[in-house]
Amino acid sequence: MTRQGRPLLNGFLNVLKPPGMTSHDMVDFVRKLAGQRRVGHTGTLDPAAAGVLPICLGPSTRLAEYVMEREKEYRAEVVLGMETDSGDLEGKVVAEREVTEEVLGRLPEVLEEFVGEIEQEPPLRSAIKVGGRRLYELARAGEEVPSKKRRVVVHEIRLLSVKLEGGRARIMLDVRCGKGMYVRALARDIGRRLGVGGCQAFLVRRRVGPFRLEEAHPVEDLKRAAKEGRLEELLLPPDVAVQHLPRAVLAEPAVYPVIHGNDISLRLLEAERVLSVGERIRLYSPDETLVAIGLIKRRVGGLVCHPEKVFVEA
Question: What is the dihedral of CA 18, 21, 24, 26, to 10 degrees?
Answer without folding.
Answer: -40
